[in-house]
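Tokens for chain A. Residues wanted.
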């Protein structure tokens, strides 16, 4: 395989159903060489956990000034096109892409190669398999760790290093395989839910998350349950 696209995403957390994509990055590869790139921070009106900012350097100010999220994702999917995907633990990122595509009525079925699976197959058990450790193992310069484009660019180099060393002896492991992830469409919060949350917040003088009007129905329900558990039902 000599033509493919490497992807990486940065998110607010680990759950594709409840967390948010903050940044996307990709590298287009032709004949084993990186020939084009894409990167964007998505405009998200969300609270970013401190540990995420510490890990990635992405701040709330950065995402508030990012590209409009629907446009960023449209361009990202357009960049990927119909290419085979390569990624480090690629099913994790793909889960977020799949959830987005289902929510926005966009078809998404892809084949992929996972550098994490390749590393587990070919490298010694004692060798750590995270991206930073793999970069060190193969002499790949690590820059701007946990930023989407940089991670994608370094994953490309790790993949090519693995391919050069091990593909000849085990070509089947380097064949793209279907990514299987089931995602259920999330519907927006109802007008009734939004109205109730506004009235509840006003009654108890509570500050709601700034993005609460953009919540899904299930997110609004969970927020309502948490508020009632804390403050009680509104009279």
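Reply:
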């Amino acid at each position: 395989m000599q033509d493919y696209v490497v992807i990486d995403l940065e998110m607010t957390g680990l759950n594709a159903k409840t967390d948010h994509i903050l940044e996307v990055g990709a590298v287009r590869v032709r004949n084993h060489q990186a020939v084009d790139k894409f990167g964007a921070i998505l405009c998200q009106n969300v609270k970013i956990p401190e540990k995420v900012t510490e890990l990635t350097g992405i701040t709330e100010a950065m995402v508030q000034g990012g590209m409009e999220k629907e446009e960023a994702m449209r361009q990202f999917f357009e960049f990927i096109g119909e290419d085979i995907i390569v990624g480090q633990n690629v099913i994790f990122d793909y889960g977020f892409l799949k959830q987005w595509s289902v929510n926005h009525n966009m078809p998404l079925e892809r084949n992929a190669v996972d550098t994490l699976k390749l590393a587990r197959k070919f490298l010694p058990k004692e060798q750590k398999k995270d991206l930073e450790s793999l970069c060190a193992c193969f002499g790949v310069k690590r820059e701007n760790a946990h930023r989407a484009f940089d991670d994608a660019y370094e994953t490309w180099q790790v993949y090519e290093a693995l391919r050069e060393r091990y593909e000849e002896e085990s070509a089947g492991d380097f064949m793209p395989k279907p990514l299987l992830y089931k995602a259920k469409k999330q519907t927006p919060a109802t007008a009734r839910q939004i109205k109730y949350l506004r009235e509840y917040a006003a009654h108890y003088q509570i500050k709601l998350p700034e993005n609460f009007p953009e919540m899904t129905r299930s997110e609004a329900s969970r927020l309502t349950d948490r508020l009632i558990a804390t403050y009680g039902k509104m009279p």
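The beta strands are 4-11, 21-30, 33-43, 67-68, 85-87, 111-114, 177-178. The CA atoms of residues 193 and 221 lie 8 Å apart.
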